Amino acid sequence: MSKLDFPSTYRSPETSRLEYFYDRPGTMPGQLHLSEDAPPAELVSIDYDRDSFSRTIIKDPETINEYLKTHTVSWIDVLGLGNNATWEALGSIFNLHQMLVEDIVNVPQRPKVEDYQDQLLIIATMVILNPDRNGFVKEQVSLVLGKNYLLTVQEEPEQDCFHGVRKRIELDRGIVRKQGADYLAYCLLDAIVDGFFPVLEYYGELIEELENEVITRPTRSTLEKIYKIRRELLTIRRAIWPQRDAINSLIRDGSDLISNDVQVYLRDCYDHTVQVMDMVETYRELATGLMDVYLSAVSNKMNEIMKLLTVVSAIFIPLTFIAGVYGMNFDRSKSPLNMPELGWYWGYPFCLALMGITAGSLVFFFWKRGWFKSVI
Amino acid sequence: MSKLDFPSTYRSPETSRLEYFYDRPGTMPGQLHLSEDAPPAELVSIDYDRDSFSRTIIKDPETINEYLKTHTVSWIDVLGLGNNATWEALGSIFNLHQMLVEDIVNVPQRPKVEDYQDQLLIIATMVILNPDRNGFVKEQVSLVLGKNYLLTVQEEPEQDCFHGVRKRIELDRGIVRKQGADYLAYCLLDAIVDGFFPVLEYYGELIEELENEVITRPTRSTLEKIYKIRRELLTIRRAIWPQRDAINSLIRDGSDLISNDVQVYLRDCYDHTVQVMDMVETYRELATGLMDVYLSAVSNKMNEIMKLLTVVSAIFIPLTFIAGVYGMNFDRSKSPLNMPELGWYWGYPFCLALMGITAGSLVFFFWKRGWFKSVI
Amino acid sequence: MSKLDFPSTYRSPETSRLEYFYDRPGTMPGQLHLSEDAPPAELVSIDYDRDSFSRTIIKDPETINEYLKTHTVSWIDVLGLGNNATWEALGSIFNLHQMLVEDIVNVPQRPKVEDYQDQLLIIATMVILNPDRNGFVKEQVSLVLGKNYLLTVQEEPEQDCFHGVRKRIELDRGIVRKQGADYLAYCLLDAIVDGFFPVLEYYGELIEELENEVITRPTRSTLEKIYKIRRELLTIRRAIWPQRDAINSLIRDGSDLISNDVQVYLRDCYDHTVQVMDMVETYRELATGLMDVYLSAVSNKMNEIMKLLTVVSAIFIPLTFIAGVYGMNFDRSKSPLNMPELGWYWGYPFCLALMGITAGSLVFFFWKRGWFKSVI
Amino acid sequence: MSKLDFPSTYRSPETSRLEYFYDRPGTMPGQLHLSEDAPPAELVSIDYDRDSFSRTIIKDPETINEYLKTHTVSWIDVLGLGNNATWEALGSIFNLHQMLVEDIVNVPQRPKVEDYQDQLLIIATMVILNPDRNGFVKEQVSLVLGKNYLLTVQEEPEQDCFHGVRKRIELDRGIVRKQGADYLAYCLLDAIVDGFFPVLEYYGELIEELENEVITRPTRSTLEKIYKIRRELLTIRRAIWPQRDAINSLIRDGSDLISNDVQVYLRDCYDHTVQVMDMVETYRELATGLMDVYLSAVSNKMNEIMKLLTVVSAIFIPLTFIAGVYGMNFDRSKSPLNMPELGWYWGYPFCLALMGITAGSLVFFFWKRGWFKSVI
Amino acid sequence: MSKLDFPSTYRSPETSRLEYFYDRPGTMPGQLHLSEDAPPAELVSIDYDRDSFSRTIIKDPETINEYLKTHTVSWIDVLGLGNNATWEALGSIFNLHQMLVEDIVNVPQRPKVEDYQDQLLIIATMVILNPDRNGFVKEQVSLVLGKNYLLTVQEEPEQDCFHGVRKRIELDRGIVRKQGADYLAYCLLDAIVDGFFPVLEYYGELIEELENEVITRPTRSTLEKIYKIRRELLTIRRAIWPQRDAINSLIRDGSDLISNDVQVYLRDCYDHTVQVMDMVETYRELATGLMDVYLSAVSNKMNEIMKLLTVVSAIFIPLTFIAGVYGMNFDRSKSPLNMPELGWYWGYPFCLALMGITAGSLVFFFWKRGWFKSVI
Fold this sequence. Notes:
homopentamer
């Protein structure tokens, strides 16, 4: 079970549409889906204790063994998923279980915590607000916590939210240098959870903007925006929900690898996760409410359109009828009964007055019912 | 862990939009977000037992140590979040854990109870009905309960709902002077929970008003009001829900710091929290129901508008057609078949009668179906 | 803790709008909200065992002590909430805890069961169908069960549902005279729960009536009725839900005051509560469904109105156009091309035929699509 | 507690509207609601073991005692609820608790299992598809399981679903003759649960039919049908939900009266109950979805009606206007500017051409936007 | 209990409409519903250990006994449900409980795990994406896990998703040849769960397509598609939900038949099941959201239609009225007041100008309100 076999496979492009990674039916469990010609992952080792600090880019994985022996805490940061060679090397150095490696490599997985006796695997999802503010990117971060080391694997090496932690270690701020690998794992988890807040803040602003838009000028694009927000909040929810369970199981089940001191900190991290979930649920409820409001606002608008049509029709159709009557050609020479009005001295003024009175009373009728207010 | 380091940071304005406080990604856990130039918090000590009572504004925090030794119960009320100096002083006097101080200072946090061996941290949310009746303000109140002291921290010192408790202590009403700090904590929690009721009462009235408005005269602003109420009830719900969990965990998990006598009182406080939640859920259901009613009422109104349009159109369009027919210019001199009606002696009266009968039967048709009732 | 202090307060009228009683922020816990000038409550004692029965109106509360000593089961029925004097007397006779009295007096409270060592407080909600069938009234009934006595307090003394129980005791029907105070408490609880059924029956009938109305002739008042039912079912639900929890906790937690025999009966009472809840939920679902049906029915009706308008317009507008064409005044003397139809021998009949064919084919078109069925 | 008293009461007709039986407020617990002049129930005894079988219609209940002593398994089937005399006899023969008899007689009750030391009361609901396929009938079946006997009571003796079980016993098919009364009880429960499937199948078909109807030709009666299905599925759900709980509690809590072998069979019966619930929930979701589809389809249809109206109006109204212009009577003799078109040689053809071009471009405009597709 | 009796019955065609198999009321529990003239099932035995591998098509079921004795792991794959003869033979060879065989044969059953002391029955549902991409097919797979054998039964032998597992065993890839029958069972379960992903991927694509369609061009067929997706996701959900419970109970309850090593793998399989459920729920929420969007989009479209109608009507109806006025025939010779405009020199130009100004200001009015944007 300790030896890993890496058949040459590739990560099929069609998996991108799905939320989670899946083995195409027929593939073996524990198989790594990595492209053979992918570059090896870049390895960065940060090694520290109370008094010393070193940051090294590792060329030959074998040198990691040295770090594991000499320093108190070794943080091996794997940037990118690497290739099979990477994992053959890391697998034997850290003695990783086949299923553990599979969960790290076959991304994305659902956040979870798994206990492999002397190692703890923590799968987390990191979200990063996109700089051009058009949404966010999601990325899996895997943490393998051992006695005096922490192995972290990031899907996309370009950006992460661990910058603050690295600086704190280097400058010896806070208590991170005085604590073990478990505290480091907590710091990273905390940074990941804190990364959700700016994303939520962005959606909070979006919803606030939409609240105005939906009532005052609902258009087709409003609808699209509401739907998009609902969809993306669903994605965030799916990322944070299992994360909460994972952190909770860390606290509840305990582990020899996590000291009591760090438990207190994890409790704080758990609170933050609950706060994120709280906000996601709130925003989801608001977005659902907005959809209701949208539907009502569209109906409202239709009412106003209909009112306008009705006012115009109801006023002019009777008038047109009157004009039509006096446009008839009954032969006045044949009978005094045939349209005598046409021959009256006051015929035309009488007719205009009739029209005026008709229009006036209709306008009055609509004005009384307050239709002009909302129409014009 | 006992020493606190306070880097100079400021509370960024953009956090105001969010429900909860969050560390900007990259900041250290346990860091206090206080402006360096903020004034120190005002400290008020109320010190009492069965026989004595003193109320002092504390200038030098070190004097608190005296109060902690001499009197039975010391209530240190911190008005405002203060600055780093405030917390350095209080932290060493009360021997506060770094994470505890962070939860107090980095507001708002989710209500919760945390047990720090010889101290109990209770985070609660206080809501106060706005005097100009346009909603409510929300504020975090933190309680640190020790053996013979209670440290309370209020976000906004201008207003609170502890006035009644202070008066009771001073005038020795009820049993508060005969009990310990745990009873005092209960009194304050009870006052906080009772503060939700006037706010809910306000929303109850609002909903009652809207119930009339939504059925008789639904307008765009009705929609806005319903949405606003739903949104604000969501906020109250988010405040009271964790508060219930917190008080429940106080009762269930027990603590050496809370006597059995006070447990009975806490049970009553828990009942009140459940009542608040009950009412919030009820109001939320009513508000959701109102949205349905609104949509139906708008559709109803459209029906009436359409009926009016249809009645007017259906009556006058056929009449206009008849008038149009007799306005045609067929040459009667060319053929006796060309519009002989125009030459009849009773031509015009016959035509008017035709119109009258047409209109009459249409009116009868609509009257039978009851359209006039709802239209006019 | 045994001494009660009753400050003179009054029950503020503005609390009536709220579902539950609440202390105005600033008041003391355990304070009774009774008007100083309220009359003392009327006390009725029913005292019985296997062989004896007496029913007395008690003038001087002190005489209760006699009843408590001599007879097996003493049922003290307090009609009305009384004043402070009433509770000072009762408090010392029955040795009532301050919080227990508060729950009895500061109505309404949420139904619950609380264990005070040698006393069991049961708060229940009684609903009584209004005789003029316009809804129901809600009232709190509090039961204090002791070893050989039962103290009951009713908010409104005018009406209750205990008549049957009183008669059964007096006439020695059933086993009530052979059992203790716990069986009496069960009988009263059972009568309270049974009181929900006629109210639900009333709403069942209302819903059945509305089902017809909503599909055949939906009007604005239908909407109001549906909303009213939803609102009132919400009230009943809020009354019965905690009642179930209360009775369940009686069964589950047990108590020395309740014998095993009575447990069997309570199980039956619990079943009835679940049945009430079941029906309330069903009615609520039906009412929600009715709202959907209403919205659909209104849309349906609009469709029919629109169809009528469209049929009338589509038939007459083309006809009016034809009439309009032959009403034009082109100068036939100037050109043989100018409206030669007007000079034809069969001109007018041709024109009428054209109109007839046009109208006929439109009517056929609409008839084929089945529009006349739903319109006329 | 063993003696039953049966006051002469009758089952009031107005209870029929309610889902569950309830005592009118004021009646005694444990009272049987049976008409005094009801005929006694018919009793059928089926008595069998491995080798013998007898089926007897019992005239004198006292003879049951004989059956209880001599044969291994005695199934006493009570057809109809009988009268007080029936239950006085059965009560003393089987030594039935007052509350047990009440649950059997005061139908309908919620399905449940109750343990009376040496007897197990199982209340179940049987549904039978109505032969004329217009719904289903619901009936309570009560089973009292003793050591070597099973007493079953059916509300309506005309129809049941136990025919198969009776035949199996008589013909000695399967293992029923080799097992005890507990296996017989299982067989009956299984038959009851299996009886739900044909009813659900019927509703499955109804929903499938409605799916077509709702999209292609939604009418008012479609709406009524959807609502009816929702309502009846609610009834089935209310019948099967507590049945599942009842069977589950049989398995979970165990009982001396049920052997381990029969437990395996009950597990299978439980699975069937869950399947029924599964299907009910699915159908309910489908019916709710259908309501949404209905609303959308009605809106869709209105769109098409409006399109037709708009097409007709938009094409003919401008044409009518043109005709109206050339129907004006400006005096051409007074001024060459007054409607010179009327005197043109090509005046009328020009006018017709203008109309043709106008109509043509409007038709093109609507055709381009695809309106004709959906309208005609 | 070990002997099986197989009465000749047939699987009624009308059960196909139902989700689950059910005994027609009146049939015996444990009876197999197989057609007497059905062909016997094809049996394939795959027999392997570390060093050997054989694949045999079994003619005479009795030879299975040989396989069970000689080889380490025997996988007996039963293709098709077979007939009574098949199950009589298999029943006696594997010593199968009557209820176990019933669950295998009377398909479909709800996924579940049942423990028969020395055998574990696992019922699973396999979904296979239909090659012509018009949905998926569902099939029951039953696994009977013994000490050194695995019996699998497939409803439809034509297609399964076990191809990959067979190849892995034959080519000795991975660790399957080094593990027992429990690992083989895990491999098959994993293959079944992985089979859900392509189906979900298909629905994910469908939803993505619909998202565009619903906003830009909502038609009646869009509605049908959304409803179809909702319905089919409901089916998938009903298949995966109990599967999760089944696998969870395998992990939680354990079994002597499953080694600790395989438990680790089952945990992974469980994770995949949760991921499937997660995605199904997400897609269901999206589909529900799409229905809301559809309704809003249809309303939106109606608004645009109404706007067009209103614009056309509001502009031309007043113009037609003006034309009507000057088409009246008042006798100008009788009075100078009768339509003097007709005799003006600038009469006609004035009239046209009046019409132009009227039309122009109406167009301006609508243009200002932005109606032309959305209409044309």
